[in-house]
Amino acid sequence: MEAHILEHYRNTGTYTYAGGYKEYFRSLPDDIAALGRLVCSQVIHRVTLKEGNTNANAALLYGDMNRYPWYRMRCEDDVLLTAPALTAKLFRMDERGFVKDRKVENKIVVTCRYVSVLMSTILKAKGIPARSRAGFAPYFKEGVSMDHWINQYYNEIESRWVTFDADGFYEEGGMPLSQYDIPAKSFDWAAEAYLSVRSGETDGKQYLYADGLGTCSLPALVRYLVYDFHALMNQELTYSFIPAYLDGRLDKLTEKELQELDRLAEWMLEPDKYFNELCTIWKLERKFRVLNSPLVGAYDHGAEFEN
Fold first, then answer.
1. From CA 104, how far away is CA 223, in angstroms rounded?
2. Please, which pLDDT band fits residue 8 given cuts at 50, 70 and 90?
3. Quick one: which of 118, 139, 221, 266 is 20 to 30 A from 30 by CA?
4. Extended strands (E) in the chain
5. C-alpha to C-alpha distances, 101 to 36, 157, 165, 238, nearest whole angstrom
6. How far apart are CA 167 and CA 36, in angstroms?
């Protein structure tokens, strides 16, 4: 692996800058599985809270959901956007910090993207090349691949990226998955899934975006292709944001626009091999970077581009 690529993934972005928590993050376990289980002990997924003590939490792996305070937010995704924000809330709720015996009432409720960002931040603080990845997980429910964020870190001894998912106690729950060293074929990468639909190999209906509207196939895949691209550039977008030119029209893209995304996806199949090409797109093609905004329009500050 080329040194400049590894250095890129040691660097941080808006969401993974550790700030004043850098030394604290360095003090956390170096073992990836131990670190993942510790981080998982600090959070509750919104679906777990909704389902209570059933399904994945039937054995109370995530704690007794009946103890979660009625006055707390049911999901804090839109509030705790960055790793320091997530960590500050955890310290405010329990000054011991990241502890295995954190009470349910003192946990934060966030989804997979936030766990992934936190894991990337901690590893980067330790000097380990790490990146969040956005794609689809086929290992939650048979016949369906749900939108999901995971992580990769570079194992310099083995000279390879190790893929892992710290968003749950999957192994303890009986899921047949090597959670902290997931085989490449066990995850549906956004670029590969997108291209499979574009080529007609599949209609893509198995790829679902958990927006409660049943969004699937190309609208879901384009969203996650862009998320994964931004994540590879160290910008892990939250669900509220998307490039402005795509906002509200993911199911109405022109063939020209889809062909542009085809090229992006083909390079993302091997993001290290085509790292320089991806960086060139990142630097020069504004349409992929200028995001939607509730207050300032995409064209209000010198960000004009062709659709």
1. 32
2. very high
3. 139
4. 43-44, 108-109, 130-141, 144-155, 160-164, 188-189, 207-208
5. 15, 33, 21, 28
6. 8
